[in-house]
Amino acid sequence: MAYYFDEPSRTFNEYLLVPGYSPSTCVPAAVSLKTPLVRYRKGEEECPISLNIPMISAIMQAVSDDGMAVALATEGGMSFVYGSQSIESQAAMVARVKDYKAGFVTSDANLSPDMTLAQVVELKEKLGHSTMPVTEDGTATGKLLGVVTERDYRLSRMSLDEKVADFMTPREKLIVAPVSTSLKVANDIIWDHKLNSLPIVDENDHLVSLVFRKDYDSHKSNPNEMLDSHKRYMVGAGINTRDYAERIPALVEAGVDVLCIDSSEGYSDWQKFTIEWVREHYGNTVKIGAGNVVDAEGFRFLADAGADFIKVGIGGGSICITRETKGIGRGQATATIEVAAARDAYFKETGVYVPICSDGGIVYDHHISLALAMGSDFVMLGRYFARFDESPSNKVMVNGSYMKEYWGEGSARARNWQRYDLGGDKKGMTFEEGVDSYVPYAGALKDGVALTLSKVRSTMCNCGALTIDELQDKAKLTIVSSTSIVEGGAHDVLLKDKTPYVSNTGH
Ligand code: IMP
């Protein structure tokens, strides 16, 4: 006979946190959001990799490329670069994150000596950069011949036909530094010589990058950066259960820090085989998350298989139509609560703590606090990160407002059928489990994440918690009734921004 769960399948919107006692020491500035990313013997050892903020970006074409990975690692989270691309291009993205040197900028406004002042002005207007290196072939890696800044030309006195070679500051007058220069030394040179920028060149005098004066504080202003032992940004990558024997070695070679099997349904032999392959070839040196599951059984299966962390959630994603298409899934709150209990039971039994991640369905910032309170160690977000400048998708104007494009991995646009693979021959068997959509543009990731986390810290203090562990321990959750949801929003008032203004003199 079929099994029926006692609990209805509930979403985050059906819960609220009831505040606990907040001692005077419990202030947002004192809150730590550090959280374990991979399995460890809690209480006996340090977790080998912890996130500094409990947010990771979804394994999706519209969300996680190398640009997103750098931006999120700067804030203390981690991106999982999407796997629905060739092995070469995914490994190249990972390598670009690992090679990224904060403060060392690859110039995108480059001049050749025979360009004209008119072209310089045009490029400056288009890209907004006032410092442009001049190279022999006009590329970002050509032999350095000089630099043009606003101090090199005066539009009122010069002809627009004048050649760059005639007014640039030539190479012999430039101060440059070799590739081995650290950011600290580069900044000292900039400081000592009162420079605005410092070109970094290789042994053949070819341009490698530029360091700008304004980046001087980049490390100091990002105290949460996720750095490896070589001070490189940390990055994850999505893999599938088909081509792992080729994909994983390429990603490891590129320097990936953590892998995650990207699948809509993780309670399967395919995931077990993939984890076993990793253990056989790399032991515990390669970390690998798995999922997604929505109940205790699924968790136990993947924990026993050796997954380093386990993702929770089926059908809750904003672009997801899996529940409609296949009738599988579970409310994100109920799934998180049950899997968290299974994670705690597993820890009690084995002494091994396997972090869990609530993936999909986070709509409001307070959903993050709820997910953490319900036992999630961190959350994976797609829609949330797709809205920022740093996501790889296009920014477009729709009905007078800026939007970013956002599409599911199971949509016809992404064609990531491996994510839904159940083995066997897939020819002609594909159907969509996701949609193509717009999400409102939300500016810079740094500002968005700062605002979101200030709310999370504030909620934690209301619950008397200074750490995520404490929040999970102390949180008191209540189910809301449909009428109390109405009470929770602004009600029985006319909102000023939705009501035409009438002055008290009738004008
Ligand atoms: P969101 O944060 O609510 O937008 O959900 C993002 C999550 O949805 C991802 O991390 C995936 O787990 C899931 N997802 C991504 N693409 C699809 C799809 O096409 N169909 C179903 N789920 C998807």
Describe what this molecule looks like in 3D.
GO terms for molecular function: IMP dehydrogenase activity; metal ion binding. Residues 104-167, 168-226 form the CBS domain. Belongs to the IMPDH/GMPR family. NAD(+) binds at residues 262-264, 313-315. This protein is an alpha/beta fold and 507 residues long. It is built from 15 helices and 22 strands. It folds into two domains: 12-102 and 225-480, TIM Barrel; 104-213, Roll (CBS-domain). The chain is 30% helix and 17% strand. The strands form six sheets. Strands 4-5-13-14-15-16-17-18 form an eight-stranded parallel β-barrel, surrounded by seven helices. Strands 6-12-11-10 form a four-stranded mixed beta sheet, with helices on one face. Strands 7-8-9 form a three-stranded antiparallel beta sheet. The termini are far apart. Bound molecules: inosinic acid. Inosinic acid (IMP) is lined by residues 58, 60, 264, 317-320, 322, 359-362, 380-384, 408-411, 433-434.
Tally the beta strands. 22
| Count of separate structural domains | 2
- List low-confidence stretches: none
Can you tell me the CATH superfamily of the largest domain? Aldolase class I
Strand content: 15-25%
What is the CATH architecture descriptor of the largest domain?
Answer: Alpha-Beta Barrel
Averaged pLDDT: 93
**CATH topology (fold) name of the largest domain:** TIM Barrel
Output the number of helix runs: 15
Helix content: 25-40%
Question: What would the principal axes of the Cα set say about the shape?
Answer: globular
Q: Specify the biggest β-sheet.
A: 8 strands, parallel, barrel
Structural class: alpha/beta
Bound molecules: inosinic acid
How far do the termini sit from each other? 72 Å
Q: State the name of the first-level CATH class of the largest domain.
A: Alpha Beta
Strands side by side in the biggest sheet: 4-5-13-14-15-16-17-18
Q: Gyration radius, to the nearest Å?
A: 26 Å
